[in-house]
Amino acid sequence: MEKIAFLFPGQGSQTVGMGSDVYENSAASKEIMDKANETLNIDLKSLMFNGPQEELTLTYNAQPALLTVSIALLRTLEASGIKPDYVAGHSLGEYSALVAANVLSFEDGVYAVRKRGEFMEEAVPAGVGAMAAIMGMEASALEEVTKEITDQGNSVQLANLNCPGQIVISGTAKGVELASALAKEKGAKRAIQLNVSGPFHSELMKPAAEKLGNVLDGCKVSDASVPVISNVSGKPVQDADDIKNKLIEQLYSPVRWEESIRTLLDEGVTVFVEIGPGKVLSGLVKKIDRSSKTIAVSDMESVTAAVTELKGE
Fold first, then answer.
1. From-to residues of CATH 3.30.70.250 in the chain
2. Which residues contact 160 (CB under 8 A, 6 or more apart)?
3. From 13, 91, 202, 260, active-site residue
4. What is the tens place of the pLDDT at every residue in 187-245?
5. Would you say the pTM of this structure is higher than 0.85?
6. What is the per-residue burial (b if ≥16 Cβ within 10 Å, else e) of 12-21?
7. Which candidate in 26, 201, 230, 260 is catalytic?
């Protein structure tokens, strides 16, 4: 029997129009999207379907929108009897994974990520922080670079360890600029500035993490019904308290995505189903292990194709 992992994308995968066709064609999806509007008391649905893109991309809109579309697609898959053996999500996507594993209700999940987005925006004024993708450098060598720049008084650290040769750094704008230059001096192939509103997964997010802790205290957090791979450790977690602590830590810790996928491979997973807009995570899985089967589910057509493939019909 093939082992299946459901993967959920993070911020950056949002796109205007996402979720509109599943809303029209799936009662389970419609219920989730209507519930998001009701829970947040905003017209999130209209923003997802019609934009504008600039507004959808704002952290506090993008996060609940992505979670909502991911869970709407998930519920449509589940209605066909498709169930995962493991779940994982990239950064924000970890919340979608937790809803999938019955750790959080959808309502608590969408509320928590809306607040998470607000806290992340508030933590660092626009222009003060930055992130950059460093291509073609080992994590250990890049960590030495970031430590050197931080020790000089410009905070910067590893933020996303995505796949071999692709690591994102995060910190103050100056720290990221200096670390990018030093990384290239020391052999990195490229450094690409990312179009993000803040220095996510860096020490600068600690004020946001504290506020997020208070929000999570007000949510019902249950043990996971299937193992969830934690961004912080890259290992499976199921205990409610452990999950909650790691979610708070996640805001200022690196996303260990490559390690997470390798853990799933070690656990015998051979099929990775990416649930949500885009195919970013499917691409990363292929860079980590070319032999893995990836299936991307982003609309009604791909839900139907995934069900056919997974059920062998």
1. 129-196
2. 90, 91, 167, 168, 201, 254, 255, 257
3. 91
4. 999 999 998 878 999 999 999 999 999 999 999 999 999 999 999 999 999 999 999 99
5. yes
6. bbbbeebbbb
7. 201
Domain 3-123+204-311, CATH number (from 3.40.366.10, 3.40.50.300, 3.90.1200.10, 3.40.50.1580): 3.40.366.10
Second CATH level (architecture) for the domain 129-196: 2-Layer Sandwich (3.30)
Q: What is the mean pLDDT of residues 150-169?
A: 97
Q: Which residue has the higher pLDDT, 127 or 141?
A: 141
Please, what is the average pLDDT of the chain? 96
- What is the location of CATH 3.40.366.10 in the chain? 3-123+204-311
Residue 201 annotated in active site: yes
Of 89, 64, 9, nearest to 250 by C-alpha is 89
Share above pLDDT 90 across residues of the chain, in percent, rounded to a whole number: 94
pLDDT band at 12 (very low <50, low <70, confident <90, very high): confident
